[in-house]
Amino acid sequence: MRRVVRQSKFRHVFGQAVKNDQCYDDIRVSRVTWDSSFCAVNPRFVAIIIEASGGGAFLVLPLHKTGRIDKSYPTVCGHTGPVLDIDWCPHNDQVIASGSEDCTVMVWQIPENGLTLSLTEPVVILEGHSKRVGIVAWHPTARNVLLSAGCDNTIIVWNVGTGEALLNLDDIHSDMIYNVSWNRNGSLICTASKDKKVRVIDPRKQEIVAEKEKAHEGARPMRAIFLADGNVFTTGFSRMSERQLALWNPKNMEEPIALHEMDTSNGVLLPFYDPDTSIIYLCGKGDSSIRYFEITDESPYVHYLNTFSSKEPQRGMGYMPKRGLDVNKCEIARFFKLHERKCEPIIMTVPRKSDLFQDDLYPDTAGPEAALEAEEWFEGRNADPLLISLKHGYIPGKNRDLKVVKKNILDSKPTANKKCDLISVPKKTADTASMQNEAKLDEILKEIKSIKDTICNQDERISKLEQQMAKIAA
């Protein structure tokens, strides 16, 4: 007997907006005309690009800080032009990158418990673009590797640890870049551009691996993202301005594996992909719905699951990584929908009767540890994400933030000094200056180590005293 309905454990996924008191209220979401998501989320914080006079700013709120947000709440406000895109570092929940109309990328360190004062000093400023920077994207598996793309049609890959631009792809795109996506292990990127081409690029070889002209024939913006199996998923518009989605195999991009027409709305479809469940969520800017699809190996390959609808249109959308979800409630996705004046979490759940951990819904997922150091990746090594189990929930690690700050401050300043030395003095003196810098660096490192040891000893002493106090009090 032929099955009439395709079997899938995700057929009954349903979305639900949280109650009003669990929303983030009275936020002036940015009105800048740029098709980014305006929101970035991780298991600790939600970051939202906001309206700011005299420059660009974004809010960073601890997840539990729901309710009305005071107008005087501190912001991250070091940019001199509007902020266009933000992205949390996947290997450090307190580090966020921002790209702006002021042509710079800035990397920020957020204090463990959130901001108490406005943050104006980034850990590092990355300067190299000649026009506004609309896209920032961290490498999925290598520590401190950040990609930025600007309206100068250039993609730069940075080593944030040293503040240097290590790859500059300035002759691949002839028109504006709409979006950039890393593949699963960060060996390739795919881009969608205003010239209607989708390109698959090897950034280290600086060459195009595959490209498709007129992936979508319409003139409105496209999006292209990598899936876990190496295929590329795109959203765009047909010649008749109908919204389309398509699936491509980079080894043969002549014809799409699947192509679906959706509707005639004119908002750009932002795709959010979950590699663990192979579900893609499509959020249209200006829409009031989230459509979701399952990608499988069976025809028609892209299977419509359902639509979450609400009354209010969305200005932007944040997507929580898998490790930030509540596994006890069978939550498989959480979105942070931006309205004009608030941010509303939306929870996607698979209905299950049992309260036990559902291991079919939660295969091991990408954890917060980097699989490679920046230098290893730039030398040509690849590595898949290091996976973690969510069986007992995800517990954020303590004090991982110190690593990045220490590395950024110590690694970026001496290199800046070296550059100045090289410009202003002959080569011999430059060498001696760099040797002096290295000696200073060693001294500083030794000093930091001794301070750390002292702190550890003091910590032990304090905990012993606390125990003694507790005994006396008891």
From TrEMBL:
Gene3D superfamilies named in the record: YVTN repeat-like/Quinoprotein amine dehydrogenase (2.130.10.10)
DUF1899 domain boundaries: 3-67
SMART domains per UniProt: DUF1899 (SM01166), DUF1900 (SM01167), WD40 (SM00320)
Any GO CC annotation of this UniProt entry: endosome membrane
Ranges: WD repeats: 76-118, 126-168, 170-211
Protein's GO biological process: actin filament organization; corpus callosum development; endosomal transport; endosome fission; endosome membrane tubulation; establishment of protein localization; macrophage chemotaxis; membrane fission
MF GO annotations: actin filament binding; small GTPase binding
Keyword annotations of the record: Coiled coil, Repeat, WD repeat
Pfam families the record matches: DUF1899, WD40, WD40_4
Family named by the database record: Belongs to the WD repeat coronin family.
Identification of the protein by name: Coronin
Organism: Delphinapterus leucas (Beluga whale)
Source organism phylogeny: Eukaryota, Metazoa, Chordata, Craniata, Vertebrata
Gene: CORO1C
